[in-house]
């Protein structure tokens, strides 16, 4: 009975909520440098924001991607309007960081649905279920991941203090254009894909909670709506 299965799945989610919440909170703590006080960009350090890296000196309207698809700066909460130059730099750095993480995460959601590691603990195709399973059966792996995240955050933060927002001086393939216009175009592409990935990653999480299925599993089963088809929470 699908409704019984759904209730069991939701009960499992609720029973695992404390463990998953703990993992998420630890992840947030490990990523705390993404929310370091804007003063880390203060003073002469902001001067490193060059024309090829989107000058912030004139305000949000001059930042790459600030008015894309909106016909102007879309800032209903007036965050940019009230922000200082260093705070705007911090906003941009945080946006780029989370966009990059979510581009990897969105790809990971899809790849995990098709391929898993041979270890039985890592063979769950559904990300939320997989997180709960790893936390329950192999917590040491979770702590190793968090330690790795922390190390990357510390290294990135130490570099970011002296560079333009989002510039970690990491371009091993040398794909960054030398031409300023081409570089700005590449920046815009990264921003747009990062913003889309942030929305998509949140959508993947909500989708699995409502349907009990991973992204690929849902598509292959023809389950396109969580409402009224007998497969999801509704």
Task: Please tell me about this protein's structure.
With about 230 residues, this protein is mainly alpha-helical. Helices cover about 55% and strands about 0% of the residues. It is globular, with a radius of gyration of 21 Å. Helix 1 packs across helix 5. The longest helix is centred in the C-terminal third of the chain and has 32 residues. The chain is built from seven helices and no strands.
Structure summary:
The chain has 234 residues and is mostly helical.
SSE blueprint and pairings:
Layout: H1 2-30, H2 79-82, H3 85-114, H4 127-137, H5 139-160, H6 180-211, H7 215-220
Helix pairs in contact: 1-4, 1-5, 3-6, 4-5
By helix and strand content, what is the structural category? mainly alpha
Query: How far is it from the N-terminal to the C-terminal residue, by CA?
Result: 14 Å
Q: What percent strand? A: under 5%
Round the mean pLDDT to the nearest integer and report it.
Answer: 75
- List the total number of helices: 7
**Taking Cα atoms only, what radius of gyration do you get, to the nearest Å?**
21 Å
Shape: globular
The number of distinct β-strands equals 0
Low-confidence stretches: 1-57
Q: Main beta sheet, described?
A: none
Order of helices and strands: HHHHHHH
Helix content class: 55-70%
């Amino acid at each position: 009975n699908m409704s019984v299965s759904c209730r069991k799945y939701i009960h499992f989610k609720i029973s695992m909520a404390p463990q998953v919440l703990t993992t998420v909170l630890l992840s947030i703590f490990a990523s705390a440098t993404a929310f370091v006080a804007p003063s880390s960009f203060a003073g002469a350090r902001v001067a490193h924001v060059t024309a090829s890296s989107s000058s912030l000196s004139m305000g949000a309207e001059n930042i790459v991607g600030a008015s894309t698809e909106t016909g102007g700066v879309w800032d209903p909460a007036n965050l940019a309007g009230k922000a200082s130059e260093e705070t705007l730099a911090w906003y941009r750095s945080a946006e780029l960081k989370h966009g990059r993480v979510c581009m990897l995460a969105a790809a990971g959601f899809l790849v995990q649905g098709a391929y898993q590691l041979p270890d039985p603990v890592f063979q769950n195709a559904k990300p939320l279920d997989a997180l709960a399973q790893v936390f329950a059966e192999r917590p040491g792996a979770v702590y190793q991941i968090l330690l790795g995240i922390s190390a990357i955050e510390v290294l990135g933060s130490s570099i970011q203090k002296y560079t333009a927002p989002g510039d970690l001086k990491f371009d091993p393939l040398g794909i960054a254009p030398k031409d300023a216009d081409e570089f700005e175009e590449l920046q815009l592409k990264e921003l747009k894909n990062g913003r889309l990935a942030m929305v998509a990653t949140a959508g993947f999480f909500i989708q699995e909670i409502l349907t009990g299925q991973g992204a690929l599993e849902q598509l292959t089963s023809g389950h396109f709506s969580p409402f009224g088809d007998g497969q999801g929470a509704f």
